[in-house]
Design brief:
Low-confidence stretches of chain A: none
CATH architecture of chain B: 3-Layer(aba) Sandwich
CATH topology of chain B: D-Maltodextrin-Binding Protein, domain 2
Mean pLDDT of chain B: 82
Distance between the termini of chain A: 137 Å
Oligomer: heterodimer
CATH class of the largest domain in chain A: Alpha Beta
Strand order of the largest sheet of chain A: 6-5-9-8-7
Shape of chain A: rod-shaped
Number of helices of chain A: 14
Distance between the termini of chain B: 20 Å
Number of strands of chain A: 16
Largest interface: A-B, 12 and 16 residues
Strand content of chain A: 15-25%
Strand content of chain B: 5-15%
CATH class of chain B: Alpha Beta
Largest sheet of chain B: 3 strands, parallel
Order of helices and strands of chain A: HHEEEEHHEEHHHEEEHHEHHEEHEEEHEH
CATH superfamily of the largest domain in chain A: Reverse transcriptase/Diguanylate cyclase domain
Largest sheet of chain A: 5 strands, antiparallel
């Protein structure tokens, strides 16, 4: 069953139903109570009726007068309340009733109103009984008709009340709520401009008006908030777009490191630095692993996280990506946390900004190389060489190692230069330099062109064995003596004189050592060239 | 008092009432009875009914009037005087009447007598 959704109809229906039920209940209640009351009343009336007829009936009974009795009973029966009546005379000595007159329905003995008929002349002598039977049907009919009337009245009453209640509900409740609902429906929460004030009757102080006012106040606040929010969001979006542009379009690589030095965010430039063309992913998200100098970097990262240290540090790091080696200038910044929760020192985020400085580094490297090396032979020049030697000697003394210093001077070089020209001379010098380097190719070995055709090679060794050093020198000498092809068909050969001194035995200062080795070379040259001479022998001979 | 030839020798007060108030038209032995009243408004009649049923003459008249149209009972016939009553009783075997004690003669039989007040 579909009941109307309209509030006022529902209210009216509810009231009507309740009213009908209550009407029925009270009507039934009233029916039974009025029935009982009527019965009592009728009983009383009938009793009074009987009393009225008592005297006459008594006379009739006394005289055994049938006609009179019949007349009395007929008179009684004419009354609506009576459905039957009887007069009974006394029992005579023969056991017979002289008089019994009855009329109407007299079978309901217990409802009968009976009056004892007293002897009209002798008191306290009963001569008969007058019985009157009240008409229950009549009483019931009366009660029913009054019930019907009452019920009808109540029903009409209920319906009128329900109708007016529904009218009032509709007028005062449903219509205002409907208009409220309608104006509410016009509001789109996503569009704050539709959040205008809801209409309500000014000056009214009922609940609906107060509700409307409340909604209006709420909506006003909400509209403000939403507008602010939207404006703020727009600004934030603009800002974010700008920042994103800066971040993504920056030529510098930018990344954020978490407390475990893992990369949490990085920009396209960063990715570009660390990926080969065609690679999609970084090889590792652990930042130090991307770079070559892992230990130094991790130490720096620990340092920068400490509050004691300045929040910024820079480091140039070499990095191998694929086959390419690049140099990255890295700026590490400890981020001051904007969050309210204070983080532990280890939890600081670190921003890393990287620039590709490979070109600059290479240029610097080249410049330094050029400054330190002889442009012809690529051996160290005198200035850089002496610096290196000084350091080597210091290290050897510190570690109780030995520095074997060999000074080489080419024999018969000047004629080649004169005969075949400078280019041939240069060729001889570069070839010789290559040969020196071939023999002293350890990392700690130092090869220097002092100038002209003078060279120094130095070797750092843990234990000095003269025979070994002598053998090395001899092998080198033999190598130098080999033919050098100036052009395809011209070859020449040079000799070499080698003076050897061993630090710190032959001097614990480089100047001294150099002086001594120079002395030895000079000595060899004076004593016939093409030989090797150790300073200790020379010293012993002195 | 009744006629001498009447077989009844005595009546109870109740039997007198029944005869005079019209309940029975006979004496207790079944013989017909013809009750006689003394003149209306006489002290004797009034006293009689007063003593018999404790009711005034007017009430008795009203009683008979009530029965006039419906009842088969008839009021006692009227005697003009005590003497007339005496004569009628003497003459009829069925008559019954009442007179003061002082005027009783041997010609009639007394069947009931009120107590002296």
């Amino acid at each position: 069953m579909k009941i109307s959704q309209k509030l006022y109809i529902r209210v009216a229906l509810s009231i009507a139903i309740v009213a009908v039920v209550v009407s029925i209940f009270f009507s039934i209640l009233s029916y039974y109570s009025s029935l009982k009351e009527k019965k009592n009343t009728n009983h009383l009336l009938v009793q009074q009726l009987a009393q009225t007829m008592e005297k006459t009936a008594a006379i009739a009974a006394y005289l055994n007068d049938h006609e009179l009795s019949q007349e009395i009973i007929n008179g009684l029966l004419r009354n609506d309340l009576v459905q039957g009546a009887s007069i009974e005379g006394e029992v005579n000595p023969q056991g017979e009733t002289d008089l019994f007159i009855a009329s109407g329905s007299i079978n309901k003995q217990k409802e009968a109103v009976s009056i004892k008929l007293i002897h009209p002349f002798i008191e306290e002598t009963i001569i008969g009984i007058l019985s009157i039977y009240p008409d229950d049907n009549f009483i019931q009919q009366q009660a029913q008709s009054s019930l019907e009337k009452e019920f009808l009245l109540m029903l009409i009453h209920s319906i009128i009340i329900a109708f007016f209640v529904s009218l009032v509900v509709r007028k005062w409740l449903t219509q205002p709520i409907q208009s409220l609902t309608d104006s509410f429906a016009a509001i789109d929460p996503t569009a704050p401009e539709t959040m205008k004030m809801l209409a309500f009757k000014q000056g009214k102080r009922d609940e609906i008006s107060r509700l409307t006012q409340g909604i209006n106040a709420l909506m006003h606040e909400l509209q403000l908030t939403i507008s602010n929010e939207q404006e703020l969001r727009k600004k934030t979006q603009e800002l974010e777009a700008k920042f994103r542009l800066i971040f993504e379009q920056a030529s510098a690589g930018i990344c954020l490191l978490d407390e475990k030095n893992n990369i949490t965010t990085f920009n396209p430039a960063f990715k570009h630095y660390f990926t080969m063309p065609g690679e999609e992913e970084l090889s590792s998200l652990h930042f130090p692993s991307l770079l070559n100098n892992v230990e130094e970097l991790q130490a720096l990262l620990i340092d920068i996280r400490s509050e004691k240290n300045p929040p910024q540090a820079t480091l140039d790091i070499e990095c191998k990506v694929g086959h390419r080696t690049i140099w990255l200038h890295c700026l590490f910044v400890r981020l001051a946390d904007q969050r309210k929760i204070q983080r532990d020192a280890h939890e600081h985020l670190i921003e890393v900004i990287l620039h590709d400085v490979t070109e600059r580094a290479e240029r610097e490297f080249q410049t330094r190389f050029e400054a330190d090396h002889d442009p012809l032979t690529d051996l160290l020049n005198r200035r850089a060489g002496e610096k290196r030697l000084k350091k080597a000697l210091r290290d050897c003394i510190k570690h109780r190692h030995y520095l074997v210093l060999m000074m080489i001077d080419l024999d018969k070089f000047k004629p080649i230069n004169d005969t075949y020209g400078h280019e041939a001379g240069d060729k001889v010098l570069t070839t010789t330099a290559q040969r020196l380097k071939k023999h002293f190719n350890q990392e700690t070995d130092i090869c220097i062109r002092l100038g002209g055709d003078e060279f120094i090679v130095a070797q750092q060794i843990k234990t000095y064995d003269k025979a070994t050093s002598n053998g090395q020198a001899l092998a080198m000498l033999n190598e130098i003596k080999q033919d050098i092809y100036i052009s395809e068909d011209i070859k020449c050969a040079v000799g070499a004189s080698i003076g050897i001194a061993v630090g710190p035995n032959d001097g614990d200062e480089l100047i001294e050592l150099m002086l001594n080795v120079d002395k030895m070379l000079y000595h060899v040259k004076e004593t016939g060239r093409g030989k090797i001479a150790f300073y200790d022998e020379f010293k012993a001979n002195k | 008092m009744v006629n001498k030839s009447n077989s009844i020798n005595a009546l109870s007060k109740r039997e007198v009432i029944d005869i005079y108030m019209g309940r029975y038209l006979t004496f207790p032995d079944g013989e017909m009875s013809q009750p006689l009243d003394l003149p209306a408004q006489s002290t004797l009649k009034n006293d009689f009914y007063q003593q018999l049923v404790n009711k005034s003459e007017q009430k008795i008249n009203a009683y008979w009037a009530r029965l006039l149209f419906s009842g088969r009972a008839k009021p006692p016939s009227q005697a003009t005087s005590v003497e007339d009553a005496l004569n009628k009783v003497k003459a009829s075997k069925f008559a019954i009447g009442y007179i003061p004690k002082s005027q009783i003669t041997d010609a009639v039989k007394v069947v009931y007598q009120f107590d002296e007040n």
